[in-house]
Amino acid sequence: MIRDMYKRLYRDVEPGRALIERTVRRADAHRRRARGRVVLIPAVAALLALLGFAYAATQSGLLKWVFGPIEPMPEVQQLVEAVGERVDGQFVSASVEEVFFDGGAGFVQWNLTTNSDEPLVVFRSRMWSEDCFIEDGYRRQRSGVYEESGAVGSMFNGGFSDLGQYMFSAAFLGEGYPAHFPGISALGVYESVFERELMTLDRPIEVFLSFCVLRPAVPIYADEIYESDEPLNPVAILSYDTPATMGRFVYDVERTTVTRTSEDPPGWGWGKVLQPGETETYDTVAYKEIFLEASRRAEEDTLLTPLGLIEERDAMFRNPNGTEVLRWCGKLLETMGYGEIVEEVTVSFTLRPRSELPVNTVIDGQSAFEFDAFRAEISSADFDATGGDIRVKLWPDYEKADPRIVWKHTAFDVYLYRDGVQIGDRPANFQLALRGNRPEPWFEIPEDYVPPDVYEGSLLVDAVSEYPDTIVIVPKLYDETWDGSRTFPGDYSMTIHLKES
Amino acid sequence: MDSAEHIREVVERHAGMVFRLAYARTRRREDAEDIFQEVFLRLARRTEAFESDEHRKAWLIRTTANLSINLVKSAWRRRTAALPDELPEKTGGAQFDELNRALDDLPRKYRAVIHLFYYEDMSAEEIASALGLTSAAVRMRLTRARRALKDLLTEKEVKSHDPGHVQEAVQGCRTGARAD
């Protein structure tokens, strides 16, 4: 019955005639270019080898990944540097190929290649430096610069859940898996682990990236990248163009059954803590497709292991040396019986300061808006070559609030225009909530929660191919018939004109 | 691809299959259009010949599936990703709406196999061959996908009759309350 319904549902899903015609035209042009390229490749390759850095900037896979279909402005291309550092181990080789860095944040493209035929599981450390703290692939660092990947997170569920943020997901390499793994990681530079604001790098620093290679001792199988959407997936990798290299361990319930000893200190989990002598199964084997089910388990499971390694974790947090942390995590995995560490490979590269990108826009005219439900002020709308930062303040009038406005989840679409023409092929829906619009942690809304008087934050707009002269900010409103939020053009629209600074 | 006519012929022949698979994976028409174009551009750039029409079809399926994955995880998609903003034309009744929404909620990894199985009538072995997976993995996904779809449809049925109950359950999960 579902098959029949499915077929009827998709029967009308067809590409439009215009799309087909456009595709045929473009494909034919590509075909002709491809034929020409076969002849030109040897000569062009030799020339590009001589050009070095210029090649990286113009052919950068990193920029293509970061900016998608947008053609980065020349200023951005100049921020890309070819690195080419490589370390060869017995089992794997690691290299750093390119860095895109704007002085405070950026991306690193690295590669991992196996030198062995056997299947291997390779975990990556955080990037780290002795000179400052490197935030790595965990969150968006700056406009135009997006994070990819997540840390392994719930792999060390419960008592060790915080470890997850110090080790990145694994790649499977070798027999039955790809021999090569390209990764891209976001980075941001901070004075120390305690700072919240990016620093502007004023000196070259050496950044290290380590890989811990395990020979698996339990069954593993590859899966696809979007496994990382699932909270209980213990192993996720980062990749930008290699599908089917995701993987996770097949958990063995018995193997992960633990007993708290009387000497173990309390764990760091959010949920219950095991009593001395109490045994609990680390129940990640219970695979759940539905997010809410998985989430519930993740929050409640608490693991206190009798591994005798607990004291070391304090040292780890005092000095978040990525290589040491990775080694520690690998040791934990090894002790838990998931594999045998066969190698550790560390590659480093120099991160160099960059000239600050000039801000090219300033608000010209109206910046304050008043509606029945709220008033708003746009204090700045700074665009540089990597994107925009629109600072917004909203003062809600809760008594007059539009029921379609869900302040807890307020998000906005931002439309950009230049000379009356929208920039980009599609509405640029940047749904970034303002700070203060939900209590932390978000899943624990206290009963005595009082909504704030003002919401304040940045709408971080990603890179554009040209600077806008007009931006239109539209809050997303809840639509009962849609069962979700979307914009209603014209409702609460705030139009801001910009001029070049 | 040796001529414009050949390109047109291939695009016309496989357009529906590629577009529907891209849409099934992304559930966004705009994304499906992007993937659709990119698939055929890659085909045009390809210099190696296909062994057969089936080989070409498998290549198209695999490329479409892979590009869908790339799009989902690309920075660009993360930036612009929104709620599924365009539903296929409704072909009748609440059941279709429920199925449609359940497909929105179905984990992405299951969408390709379920689509190829339900719509293209491909066997697990054929799907495995096209997607570069093992038959066992495809069968496992199909089993899980159908179970998830069933659960989602049941959940939506409950929700449509008792929205308050579901909201309560959702809130319970968010606060870590055990539902049992």
> How many separate domains of chain A?
2
| Residue share in β-strands of chain B | under 5%
Oligomerization category of the chains in this entry:
heterodimer
Helicity of chain A, in percent? Answer: 10-25%
| Tally of structural domains of chain B | 2
State Rg of chain A. Answer: 25 Å
The coarse overall form of chain A would be: globular
State the strand order across the main sheet of chain A.
1-2-3-7-5
Tell me, rounded to a whole number, the average pLDDT of chain B. Answer: 70
Q: Strand share of the residues of chain A? A: 25-35%
Poorly predicted runs of chain B: 73-91, 160-180
Major beta sheet of chain A, specifics? Answer: 5 strands, antiparallel
Main sheet overview of chain B: none
Give the helix/strand class of chain B.
mainly alpha
CATH class of the largest domain in chain B: Mainly Alpha
Supply Rg of chain B: 19 Å
Work out the number of β strands of chain B.
0
Number of discrete helical segments of chain A: 8
Structure at a glance:
Chain A is an alpha+beta fold and 501 residues long. Chain A has eight helices and 24 strands.
Structure report:
Mean pLDDT of chain A is 65; it is low at 36-58, 138-164, 222-275, 279-319 and 427-445. Chain A has helices at 2-10, 17-51, 53-59, 61-67, 74-77, 291-300, 310-318, 322-336; strands spanning 80-88, 92-101, 105-114, 120-125, 133-136, 167-173, 180-190, 205-216, 220-223, 246-249, 257-259, 279-281, 339-351, 361-363, 368-370, 374-384, 387-396, 412-418, 421-422, 455-462, 470-475, 477-479, 484-486, 494-500. The termini of chain A are far apart. With 501 residues, chain A is α+β, with helices and mostly antiparallel strands. Chain A folds into two domains: 58-351, no CATH class; 361-500, Immunoglobulin-like, CATH 2.60.40. In chain A, the strands form seven sheets. Chain A has a five-stranded antiparallel sheet with strand order 1-2-3-7-5. Chain A has eight helices and 24 strands. Chain B is an all-alpha fold and 180 residues long. Chain B has helices at 4-26, 29-45, 53-73, 75-80, 93-105, 108-118, 124-131, 135-161, 163-174. The chains are: A alpha+beta (501), B mainly alpha (180). At the A-B interface, helix 1, helix 2, helix 4, helix 6 and strand 23 of A face helix 1, helix 2, helix 3, helix 4 and helix 5 of B.
